[in-house]
Amino acid sequence: MESELEIANGDATYDLSSILSSPYRDYLVRNNGDQVKFDSFKGKITGLYFSASWCGSCQRTTPKLVEVYNELAQSKNFEIVFISSDDEEESFDAYFSKMPWLAIPFFDFHARGKLNALFGVGGIPHLVILNEDGKILTSEGVRVIVENGSDGYPFNAEHIEKLKKQDEEAKMNQSLKSLLVTESRDYVMTSDGKKVPVAELEGKTVGLYFVLATDDECLDFNPKLIEVYNSLREGGESFEIVMVPQDEDEDSISEEFETFPWLSLPINDTCCLKLVWYFELAAIPTVVIISPNGKTLQSNVVEAIEELGVKAYPFTPEKFAELEEIEKAKREAQTLESLLVNQDSDYVIGEDGVKIPVSDLIGKDILLYFSAHWCSPCQAFLPTLTKAYQEINKNNKRLEVIFISDDTDQKAFEDYFSEMPWLALPFGDKRMESLSHWFKVAGIPTLVALGPTGKTVSTDANGFIMAHGAEAYPFTRERIEEIEVWGPRARAFDEESKDKTAAQGWVCDGDKCYKE
User: Fold this and answer.
1) 131 close to 137: Cβ distance less than 8 angstroms
2) Is 26 left (phi over 0), alpha (psi -120 to 50) or beta?
3) Vertex 281, ends 226 and 308: CA angle to 5°?
4) Is 243:211 a contact under the CB 8 Å cutoff?
5) What DSSP string describes 112-139?
6) Which of 144, 148, 371, 451 lies 20 to 30 Å from 514 when distance is taken between CA atoms?
7) Omega of the bond prior to 197 within 30 degrees of 0, cis?
8) CB 285 within 8 Å of CB 219
């Protein structure tokens, strides 16, 4: 038998009774407490299912696996053993009660840990399938079963390769029907429970919206998607959204669905998980665009919808190329006034709230300082920025900084701004959101440098100042190339700003805070 610390490999052969037993246990258990000797499934194809009750993906995978197991267990040579990652026996028992197969007993922590190490389990759900002789057939059992169901049997390399070729052919012939229809269902649902045949959606541009009801990013994105959906529908566009819910809690998503104007796959439908694998989903929320001919047009347009709204429709490559040219022209024409002046405001504020017209700043070098009082890396960076600002302006005022706050209340803004010798946008100013989008600010502190004409010189001026202080001025690439890149100052700052507390919904890592 292999060492307990040896990582399993495809060429090894494992004696299941040896790797699944322990010195004081020679059996597995069923969810009714029955003990089952290893001889009962000797010579069977066996799946080792690493899973846990607290894992949302596991909760979505298990029903599909139960369905496949029930189809195969009676007529085929197939068994599954559950290896739990639960910490509490009550949770283990409740989760195991849904499973018709065998398990390592909860009390045998050592055996469960040994198997995780032996098979190099880095994440769950994870399904390793071994043949009758104990040789690994696949370590991607979850994907094989979710994508192919019982058709994946007997899970050997030749059969899986055959299925992959069939999948490739199916993708070439993809249609809305092949994506959304199953043997038992040919419809999607409205929020009030009415069934809409998938056939009625053919010929439309369809967005498949992968969503988790309780996910903060989904909750933030929903109002924008509703706005875009309603605008397109009211404008007579042939557009529909079909929600692909990823929640295991039916109550939470049902309550949220009632507020949505679009359609949905039934909650916990087998298609919900299959489509995750089919589109190789990398993030939540995701909106996949299916063209009127049923082919995939875009793999994710969430960012485009957030930034461009209805302008992104119909989400074609030609439309995005057109918008890119428009944005390029806007950036080439960028001025300080185009960034900071709108119908509501044409000023920034100084000490005691004094209004300073934007026109007074034209011709100066400007730093836009995206920051917040609660952000520990921002607090650590402020003295460095203040020192550089004062040194640059020592002989004459060549540089101005405009603080753009992400604080959550007026007092925090005022307390933080009182520490700064420069200007700011008023607290809660709408320009903050448009500037964040324009410069794609992903974390704070961010320091954007503008030249005398108002054009962008750098979106990483804080990095230049951390490394070089006032010497980095005027923050052009040419200037940075003249001086040493990333010296001891940056490393010292990075150490100073680590492991500090962030505001709720944010995480601070090194010299930046990012939204979770």
Assistant:
1) yes
2) alpha
3) 35
4) yes
5) HHHHHHHTT--SSSEEEEE-TTSBEEES
6) 451
7) no
8) no
The single-letter DSSP state of residue 25 is: B
Q: Residue 265's closest CA among 228, 211, 319?
A: 211
Main-chain phi, psi angles of 443, to 5 degrees = -155, 165
- CA 181 – CA 93 distance, rounded (Å): 35
- Give the gyration radius of the chain's Cα atoms: 29
pLDDT of residue 492: 46
DSSP per residue over 369-422, as a string? EEE-TT-HHHHHHHHHHHHHHHHHTSSS--EEEEEEE--SSHHHHHHHHTT-SS
Phi, psi of 20 (to 5 degrees): -95, -10
> What is d(CA 150, CA 140) in angstroms, rounded to the nearest whole number?
15
354 contact partners, CB below 8 Å, separation of at least 6: none
Nearest C-alpha neighbor of 385 from the set 406, 364, 405, 371: 371
Query: How far is it, in rounded angstroms, from Cα 356 to Cα 374?
Result: 26
Which pTM does this prediction carry? Answer: 0.59
Residue-wise pLDDT tens digits, 340-369: 998 888 999 998 889 999 999 999 999 999
Pick the more confident residue, 182 or 243. Answer: 243
For residue 188, give the nearest of 121, 240, 259 by alpha carbon.
240
**Residue 206 · residue 240 · CB < 8 Å:** yes
Position 490 scores a pLDDT of 44
Q: Which of 318, 350, 377, 339 is nearest to 453 (CA)?
A: 339
Minimal CA–CA distance to 87: which of 113, 59, 120, 123?
A: 113
Please check whether residue 64 is in contact with residue 273, taking contact to mean a CB–CB distance below 8 angstroms: yes
Phi, then psi, of 368 in degrees rounded to 5: -95, 115
Angle at 39 between CA 51 and CA 17, to 5 degrees: 55
Provide the token pair at 467. Answer: 């490394």
Select from 353, 354, 298 the least CA-distant residue to 321. 298
User: Residues 500, 505, 509, CA angle at the centre, nearest 5°?
Assistant: 35
